[in-house]
Amino acid sequence: MPIKVCSWNINSVRLREDSVCRLLSEETPDVLCLQECKSPEDKIPTEKFSKLGYKYLIASGQKGYNGVAILSRLPLKEIARRDFASLEHARHIAVNVDNKLNIHNFYVPAGGDIPDRNINEKFGQKLDYLSEMAEYFQSQKPQKSILVGDLNIAPGEEDVWDHKKLLKIVSHTPQEIQALNEVMLSANWVDIIRKDIPSGLLYSWWSYRARDWDTANKGRRLDHIWATKDIADKGYGSYISRDVRGWEKPSDHAPIFSSFDL
DNA sequence: ATGGTAGGTCTCCTA
Description:
single chain; Deoxyribonuclease I, Chain A; six-stranded mixed sheet; 8 helices; DNA-binding; globular
């Protein structure tokens, strides 16, 4: 049986509980990885998710900011939660799914506005976070693993609406793209979304600030699904549900999907 | 060059 995985920055799981239910009903992923839950673990709603068959939830939460969670209809076991860059932020959780594969769910720091760590502390924290991710995976040598989440970096020219205009904008600077590449090389991760959809513009995020996000289409591909090389060939059928960005009271991110035939 | 919108710990912080 293939396992269908979804990653979605929900921007408040409590405000968008019904949107999560709608996504689960319409897209039926086996595992849903959420970021920016903005909720302590014990205040994440569970009842409606459970009624839809998603009985397993493992989360790392905090009040007001950040927060990651994994919802599943297959059994989950927590295998890690780490405080990369010692920020004391809830930005990582890792689980084993049904003894078949491991999933790391990340919410990488956005990094502030100015891409210079001497002026902007947040940019430095983002780079540190990424280098500690790389160190971690270098020592772990993960296998049969998936890494998903809002990595807050759009690495490719076709992952942003204007490559040249965005080169100095946090999320698309060469420095961040290099740091993300180091993470990728640390465990031979393969970008499954781009393996399945190798060319063409592809976005998963559109700012709330655009007057008409759909027409302007100034998007970025900030959300990712990677797999270790040993199972990369088993990944298929990736897609991004752009329609979800147009739902009532939307998150600024669209959910992304890949399936794995394990 | 600027400012635009959204969410939560809500006149301030984060994205």
